[in-house]
């Protein structure tokens, strides 16, 4: 599922709903953030450096 601009909780909600309704027996939810512009990637890396 591609949720475009919405967040991964949308995909998680849909997965849980499908599990509860018996539409599937297992679900996998993941998230990918892509920073294609070098300046934006550098800003994110600088911001996250304080967490490690």
Give an account of the 3D structure:
With 52 residues, the chain is mostly helical. The protein has one domain (8-51). The protein is 46% helix and 0% strand. It contains 2 helices and no strands. The protein is rod-shaped.
Provide a concise account of the structure shown.
By secondary structure, the chain is mainly alpha-helical.
Give the averaged pLDDT, no decimals.
76
Largest sheet, in brief, is: none
Rg estimate, integer Å: 16 Å
User: Secondary-structure element sequence?
Assistant: HH
Task: Give the CA-based shape.
Answer: rod-shaped
Runs in which pLDDT lies below 50 for 5 or more consecutive residues are none
Helical amount among residues, as a percent range? Answer: 40-55%
Which structural class is indicated by helix and strand composition? mainly alpha
Domain module count: 1
Total count of strands:
0
What fraction of residues sit in β-strands? under 5%
Number of helical elements: 2
Could you give the distance between the termini? Answer: 31 Å
């Amino acid at each position: 599922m591609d949720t475009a601009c919405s967040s991964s909780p949308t995909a998680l909600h849909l997965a849980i709903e499908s599990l509860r309704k018996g539409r599937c027996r297992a679900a996998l939810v993941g998230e990918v953030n892509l920073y294609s512009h070098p300046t934006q990637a550098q800003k994110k890396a600088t911001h996250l450096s304080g967490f490690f």
